[in-house]
Structures are given as C-alpha cells and as structure tokens.
Design brief:
The complex is a heterodimer. Chain A is α/β, with parallel strands linked by helices. Helices cover 34% and strands 27% of the residues of chain A. In chain A, strand 11 and strand 12 form a beta hairpin. Chain B is mainly alpha-helical. Chain B has one domain (2-229). The longest helix of chain B has 30 residues, at 45-74. The chains are: A alpha/beta, B mainly alpha. Chain B: It comes from Solirubrobacter deserti. Chain B: It is a multi-pass membrane protein. Chain B: Residues 50-190 form the ABC-2 type transporter transmembrane domain.
Chain lengths: 293, 236
C-alpha cells in the first residue's frame, strides 16, 4: 500500500482554485518532490495532506487514513516541517524542542535532534534571537524527532547557507536509508535532483510533468554549447542552433552522440579548437523551465 | 491529558516572561478590585465581590485570552501546534488552562481581600464554584469568538471593548437592584448573570438557575461564533 495516495485533489480559496485535479502516490521509502513556481499549488497540496486544508474535491489518504478525519492516526507517524510555521519566541531552542517532543507520541532524544541540526550551541538561546537559517534548522529538528515514518518537508532548505543545506541533505539521506518516506517541496532544482526519486512539476494547480528524474528529462533535447568559432557551422548543425550569448553557441539535439561526433569532425576538418565545449543530456531544470514558461 | 498540561506549563513559562501581559492579567484586576473594595463598606458586600469577580474574568480570562490567541495566530504558533498530534480542543485547552487557573487563584485572593476589608463570609460559598466555572468558560468562549475577528494582539485592545463594556455595564445594571429584583433580561446579559450568581453566593438570593442559564447561553453564543469564524492562521 502506498504511504500517500492523492486522487483528483481539488482545493479552493473562495473563487480561486489553487489545486485542480492533482493525482500522485508515494511509496514507502521513496523521496517524492513537488516542484513549481510560487503559487503553483505545492503548499496547498501539502496542507491538504496534513489535514490543514479541506479539499473541495478528490481524495487524500496517508497511511490509508483521511488526514482530516483521522488526524491523530496520521500525525503520530508523520513529521511535518511547515514552510511558515511559527514559534513562541520567548522559549529557548531546547524548551521548544522538549515541548514539541512532549506534545507528540514518538520517543526520541531531543539533545540528539539538536545535535544533528547543529543547534546544540544555541540550545539555551531564545527562539526570537535565532537567525532565519537557525529557525529553519529548528523546524527540521522538530520534524525529525522520533524518526517518523513519513516526513513532509515544505521547502526545507530555504534560507540555509550552502554548508547547512548540504548537511540537511545528508540528514535527509540518512533518514531515507533508515526507511523514512519523504514528501518535499523545493524551489531548488538541484535539491530535487540530489534527493528525489520521483518528481512532479505543478503549474496553475495541475501536475504538468511527473516521473523519475530520468523520465522527466528523457524527452528533452540534449545540449551542446561552445564558444562561437570563426567559421560558420554547416547547415545541418546550424539548424540545431537555438540561442547563444556572450559569443556562445548552443545546439539542441535528440541525437547527442551523433551530432556531437559531426560537430567534432567538422572542427577537425577546419582545424578548429572548440573552446568551452560542453555536452549534456536534458536536465530537471530544462524540464522545469520548459513547463512553467 | 499530559500533553495538554505540557502545553499549559509552557504557556505559564511564556506568560512569566512576558511582563506586560503578566501585569495586565495580575495587577490590573487586583488594583481595580482594591478600589471597589475600598468603597465596599458603603454598599452591599455581595455586589462589591461580584463586580471584582467580573473584572477578574474580563481582564484575566477574556482580554488576555483574546490577545494571546491573536498573537499566537499572527506568530503562526497555532498553525504549528495544529501540525502536531494534539486535537483542536486539546490545543485550546492547553493555551487557555493557565488563564483559567490564574483567574481561579485571583478570585480566591480577591475574596480573601474582601473579607480582610470587613466583608462577611459568603452565606452560600458553593454557589461560587459554578460562578467560577461557568464564568471562566463563558469568558474563554467569548475570547475565542472575539479572537476570530482580531488580526493582531494590538487590535485586541479595540475588539475586546464591546464585550468588555457590555459585561461591566450589565453587571452594574444587575447589581443596581436587589437580588430578588433581578429580571430574566438582566440574567441574559453577558455580565448580569455572572454578577448575580456571585452575589447569591455571598448573600441569600433567588434561584441560581436563571443566572447560570444566562452564562450558558453566552458560552453557547461564543462557541457557535468561534466554531464558524475562528481561524488557526492569518488570512491569506
């Protein structure tokens, strides 16, 4: 049985439809990323899964339960990191984490949670004195307490410095290795590429592309880029040219190996060195930019 | 229950660190109570104590709970609490319990002060128990309803005013007549029922059913408004 099953989900805010017929499922031990521009419907989808938002239509099941009607059954197995959850600023980091541990049923070591998020040195500091990045790390610490079966992370590394982001990715990797299922939203495509087994790209409340990273980018053309040579390209390669900037040419092709060989042969024939030559397959970023445009 | 207590204890800790809220909840009703008690010798001690009781419920429970809930919603703390395992009633119980206990302690203190100022002992002390229970629950219920229309802690100073004034005015109205002359309409006002119930604990009076019914009606109104309108996070 899938950990999360979402069928034809629709969510509205008054007359505005924020989520319009979304379907996906997440299997145990899987990392599933919801991607999309601001306002695409990612957070609303998560809120429906968390039971915070009553769907206008469709069906949501988490561990086989309705997250609104059977909140307790879902929450005791789920760690949630909100995009914009708040803290009582008067409490210290340790007091906040200990309170959260007492409010839940999952057993765990608060000190260890803080240590994993590099917050031990800040444990006795009032939450209102934390930086934005430290607050995000505290959010993660609360969400992972007691090793939940499912972790819902809404933009977990927004506001984190590169080192903290890497450490958070490492932590998420450890949780996945331990069998945790993870549903996350992110603005960082490299984060989805680093963590996710499958992704879904949302636009205007609908999933416009979904699948494994390979699936999502498989249909996209590969790219060959290089500094513009002094000789004009032959017609067959020039036809692949899409755009260029700062003296760079970019060719898009669905036959990377064949067209790269042709380009290199042409360069050899004219005794040219193709400077800054790069060739790569389609990426998640290409897919994302292709569907949200 | 342990979880509700854990949340309540953290609220006590927060309350202790927020000097302004603490002063409002503790000192203001005591100061007002002392002022009223200073005039007590000229009038009915039952009326004096009843007015003190109304002030405690309004300041300590109603106004403080409205302010606290609006602030917690603005800070997105309510949203966070809802992402955990507590049910909505448990969250509200945990947040409001310290105020209800504080109101109980203040009530006892005020009653003791009144006796120290020369008031006789209450003739029906057990009547003060439902007065405290129903009065504090009504105040909490009205606070939830008012918080539904209060976007921030600062705005609470404005939004609590109508219920505040209505409760004080109606309490004074009910206390302006003798206990056996209080009408049903007086009992059905937000302060009249509470004031008369407390006075009946101090002095022999009529039935406690009518004033208790008034408190239950206002509790129901507060509950229904909050059920329909209370939001756990700021409007988008």
């Amino acid at each position: 049985m899938a950990v999360i099953e979402v069928t034809d989900l629709r969510c509205t805010y008054g007359a505005h439809t924020a989520v319009d017929g979304v379907d996906f499922s997440v299997e145990r031990g899987e990392v599933f990323a919801l991607l999309g521009a601001n306002g695409a419907g990612k957070t609303t989808t998560l809120e429906a899964l968390e039971g915070h938002h009553a769907p206008a239509g469709g069906r949501v099941r988490v561990f086989g339960h309705d997250p609104r009607a059977e909140r307790r059954a879902v929450r005791r197995r789920t760690g949630v990191m909100l995009q914009d959850g708040g803290f009582a600023g008067e409490l210290t980091v340790r007091e906040t984490a200990e309170l959260w541990a007492r409010l839940g049923s999952r057993a765990g070591d608060v000190a260890h949670d803080l240590e994993r998020l590099d917050l031990t040195a800040r444990a006795d500091v009032a939450v209102e004195q934390l930086s934005g990045g430290e607050r995000r790390r505290l959010e993660v610490a609360l969400a992972i307490h007691g090793s939940p079966d499912l972790l819902v992370l809404d933009e977990p590394t927004t506001g984190l410095d590169p080192e903290s982001r890497r450490r958070t990715w490492q932590l998420i990797g450890e949780l996945v290795d331990a069998g945790t299922t993870i549903l996350l939203t992110t603005h960082y495509l490299e984060e989805a590429e680093a963590l996710a087994h499958r992704v879904a790209i949302l636009r205007d409340g609908r999933i416009v592309r979904a699948g494994s990273l390979g699936d999502v980018s498989a249909a996209l053309p590969a790219r060959i880029s290089f500094r513009a040579p002094p000789h004009p390209l032959p017609d067959d390669l020039a036809a692949l040219r899409t755009h260029g900037r700062l003296g760079e040419l970019v060719l898009e092709t669905h036959h990377l190996q064949r067209d790269l060989r042709r380009l290199l042969n042409w360069a050899d024939t004219h005794d040219l060195t193709l400077e800054r030559l790069h060739a790569r397959g389609g990426t998640l970023e290409d897919a994302f930019l292709g569907v949200i445009a | 229950m342990n979880r509700v207590l854990a949340l309540a204890l953290s609220e006590v800790r927060i309350l202790g660190r927020n000097k302004l809220v603490l002063a409002t909840a503790l000192l203001l009703p005591l100061a007002l109570g002392a002022m009223i008690a200073a005039d007590g010798e000229d009038g009915s001690w039952g009326g004096v104590v009843a007015m003190q009781f109304v002030f405690v419920m309004l300041f300590c429970v109603y106004a403080t709970a409205t302010t606290s809930l609006a602030a917690r919603r603005r800070q997105l703390v309510l949203k966070r609490l809802r992402s955990g395992e507590l049910s909505d009633p448990q969250i509200l119980a945990g947040l409001l319990l310290p105020l209800l206990v504080l109101a109980g302690a203040q009530s006892v203190l005020l009653l003791a002060c009144a006796v120290a100022f020369g008031a006789p002992l209450p003739e029906r002390p057990l009547t003060l128990v439902p007065a405290y229970v129903l009065g504090s629950v009504m105040s909490a219920s009205l606070a939830l309803a008012t918080a539904a229309f209060t976007a921030s802690a600062e705005l609470a100073q404005v939004t609590v005013a109508p219920v505040f004034l209505a409760a004080i005015t109606s309490a004074a109205w009910a206390l302006s007549v003798t206990a056996d002359a209080v009408t049903t309409v007086m009992h059905l006002t937000p302060g009249g029922g509470l004031a008369d119930l407390v006075r009946q604990g101090w002095e022999q009076g009529g039935s406690v059913v009518a004033p208790a019914a008034g408190l239950i009606v206002w509790t129901g109104i507060g509950y229904e408004v909050s059920r329909r309108c209370f939001r756990w996070e700021p409007r988008r």
